[in-house]
Amino acid sequence: MTTENRTSTAGPTTVTAWAAPSAKAPLERTTVERRALRPTDVRIEIKYAGICHSDIHQARDGWSEGIFPMVPGHEIAGVVTETGPEVTRFAVGDRVGVGCMVDSCRTCDNCRAGLEQYCFRGNIQTYNDRDKNGDRTYGGYSTHIVVDEAFTLRIPDGLSLDVAAPLLCAGITLYSPLAHWGAGPGKKVAVVGLGGLGHMGVKIAHAMGAEVTVLSQSLRKKDDGLRLGADHYYATSDEATFEQLAGSLDLIVSTVSAPLPLDKYLSLLKTDGAFVNVGAPEEPVSLNLFSVIAGRKSLAGSGIGGIRETQEMLDFCAEHGLGAEIELIRADQINEAYERVLGSDVRYRFVIDAATI
Ligand SMILES: [Zn+2]
Ligand SMILES: [Zn+2]
């Protein structure tokens, strides 16, 4: 089904999208403009878009002032339908993805080191942001997107586009800290929370060769956790968990946004272990610094990954046959899906079939 109203490449094109017209308002079908192709741009026909928890935060204005109407979506998988004259890395028909950012300054030390996610000048977010020329950015709940090839990822043939889409945020958010802190054979890694992020953490850490533990509030998803690759599964509501695992873990990656008793979690680490937050509560947290002094422990954070590392993650996932566990939905189910995400009623990622947009 083609929903693009104009196909001329001379100017901007009007495309169909689902947008929140204002903060907290339900998303509805509308149209937005995609820019005319710049020399290094590719036009992508979107096939699938994942629903990330942060889409809901932003569409409902939980984090900061949003730009409305807002088209969320930063887990995008599709196919290149057109390339600008200076594009060198992609051709029409290529399977591609777009994640959380669509540009950065490209000149600061972090950008030059492939850490565009930590661009000193702030990268440009795939949606709810403004481009270098001031135009609004619109995300993946749409039929098409125009993106610079430098921020476009290649999706290897071994990965289906539907299960690949969530890798562009959930996958890289877990891959990056697991790779940085050396998850691998001989390492004991715990993932806190088995949701959209956590389930990818379990799969990736297991594929990296680590011994994987899930720390979840209850044992409700234990069968899933073990099936996804966890070796152990503990309930954090059970005090015995913290006694049994004391001083045993090399790395803990927390995906939860609820405030955690950090001192208790840090007590689970070995000497030199690291506790890394990829989820964040909205309120500041408190910590007894002796929890890191004793045992030379690290309390750290991590956000998505750079473009080069995101490609490395996609190649790794293809090589190991890792995709997200998804529930495919129609675009007219987005609002219902948001409610279900808020109620933790999804195993493990909703993905919108863009043919229904
Ligand atoms: Zn996300
Ligand atoms: Zn930069």
TrEMBL record:
Residues 25-352 form the Enoyl reductase (ER) domain. The keyword Metal-binding applies. It is an enzyme of class 1 (oxidoreductase). InterPro entries: ADH-like_C, ADH-like_N, ADH_Zn_CS, CAD-like, ER, GroES-like_sf, NAD(P)-bd_dom_sf. It catalyses: a primary alcohol + NADP(+) = an aldehyde + NADPH + H(+). Its cofactor is Zn(2+). Pfam families: ADH_N (PF08240), ADH_zinc_N (PF00107). Gene3D superfamilies: Medium-chain alcohol dehydrogenases, catalytic domain (3.90.180.10), NAD(P)-binding Rossmann-like Domain (3.40.50.720). The keyword Membrane does not apply. Keywords: Metal-binding, Oxidoreductase, Zinc. Its EC number is 1.1.1.2. Belongs to the zinc-containing alcohol dehydrogenase family. This is alcohol dehydrogenase (NADP(+)).
